[in-house]
Amino acid sequence: MVEPMVKLTLLFRPAVRESFVSELQKFGVVHVEQQQVEENAETNRLAARIARIGQHQTFLRSRVDERGATPASVPYQGKIDDLVRKIDLLRVRIEGYETERAVLVRELATADRWGNFDPQLIEGLSKFGLRMSVHSATLATASRIAEEMTGDGTRSFVPLFEDKGTAFFAVVGSAESEAAELSVPEERLPERTASVVRERLEKIDEGIAEARSEIDALLPFREALSTRIAELQNELSFKIVVGSVHDAGEGHLYFLTGWIPSNQRGRLEEFLQSEEAAYLLEDPLPEDKVPVKLHNGAYTRLFEPILRIFSIPNYRELDPTPFFAPFYTIFFGLCVADLGYGVLILVAALVAFVVIKRKSVRPLLYLGLILATSVIVFGLLLNDLFGIKITSIAGPKSALSHAVLFGSVNSAMMLAITLGIIQITFGYVLRAINQVRAHGPAAALKPSGIILMLLGIVLAALHSLGPSFTVGPIPFGAAAAAIPAAQQIGFGMIGAGLVLLLLFNSLEKKIFLRPLFGLWELYELATTVPGYILSYLRLFALGLSGALLGETVINLAVMVRGDAWWGIFPMILVLLIGSGVNLAIGLLSAFVHSLRLTFVEFYNSVGFKGGGVEYRPFELKS
Length: 622
Description:
The protein is an alpha+beta fold. Among the domains are: about 115-190, Alpha-Beta Plaits, CATH 3.30.70; about 300-605, no CATH class. The protein is about 60% helix and about 10% strand. The strands form three sheets. Strands 1, 2, 6, 7 and 8 form a five-stranded antiparallel β-sheet that branches. A hairpin with a 2-residue loop joins β4 (about 155-165) and β5 (about 165-175). α3 runs antiparallel to α6 (about 195-220).
């Protein structure tokens, strides 16, 4: 949910500007409306410093991950800037070593081709009036050149080696002989021997190891970098807020505007009573850009990262997170829908809990546990275990088989359609609530008409399908048959909804013009809503394709098993690779398509716009 906000306007004298802003920062509740502060050398320096230390912090964290052990953090006794400088120098040294090492590796690959020779010996031939050049050519061309030089008293052909159909050879002759006469390229020999390059590589590796050892000695001080980053961020935000202070009276009075959660109003008033400042607290106006603070329960909060992929709501909208979170959980489970894969995901998440200690990752691991549980539940409901029917393994009378409620293809397909109808209709209910909040009760009549039409169509359709129609164990047809005159009631709801849609759309228009606009909206509904509902078939299709692919992997594994005892090894390999690929595709598809159903089908029915500004209190970071 979106927390209510209160607008705050502060007035204070220039003499207390910096001290008051400093106290406001310590109070840490007010979201300050920051102005575009002109860049200057000081703010640029702070921003660059924060970025550089942040890079050092990321580098140290990656080094901890490489080592696989997390050393205990200890406070740094010296100046933090000296620690930053030391890390800076070590990183520059390592980067220099690694750059040189990359060059040496390429040089060694060339030097190895020519063997361990001394280039100075070749240069020494000139003292005897001789010249040696090295060339490469095709085998046929090299053979022809060798024949041409046979009996030539001025030059000699010396074969060296062959590599992938190319012959490398040397030509030794008088210093006056020209290599160009051969019409083949002359190879450039390395300036150093392979042994010299290897010696330098060893020294480089020793230097890298030494520098990394010095870095490792600094790992216990990594939290000191976090502290320093927080200090610099506090300093930068302080200067930005000071720059956002307005002159209200020719330098005699300053004012600042901001926002606070309404539940912090008492604390703020108590704080301001001890400060040299006047203040005004008022409710937001319709034109105000109010910051948004979300307040959700433990379960719903896990889905806020998914919400932020699209956008947070604006202040006057409902927070959709509590409403799409259960659907997203169900959709994810339906897309994978495999008891075996669900158990694997659950085990992986539990192992990650033990291995990964970083607090920022823990919410994602909790979300992984919830989604894994959904995959297990729907794998059981849809009768799937690694592509094998659970009922064929456990037997028709077992407890597991009794839990298979949507095992047939028709039941799984109709379950997906039913979920689509429920979510789309629920979305229009939320739209009606949003319209009441933003524009009053009359604005909710149009979405209410759409809801009536959807429910009426469903009721009439269920009556037509007859009392035997079920979705798995759910007797929808019998429930509709139990309603007297269900078809007439359904048509009545459709008619009433149509009237509301035609007469109460575009409330700013005259009432006799509204039906014209309503006809266009009716056309849009007729062309979009059925498509939205059919989009939920992707849940059924993805679950079915995953089950078929899993079954195919098992059949392939059985085929490669054969009769030999050693066939167990290729069988296991096929199972691991095939199931791994199937699971990876299933997880990616589940994430993307559940996201799409949320952001397109559900958000369009809700009328969600987003674009909110996140509440960021002006506070001291630690």
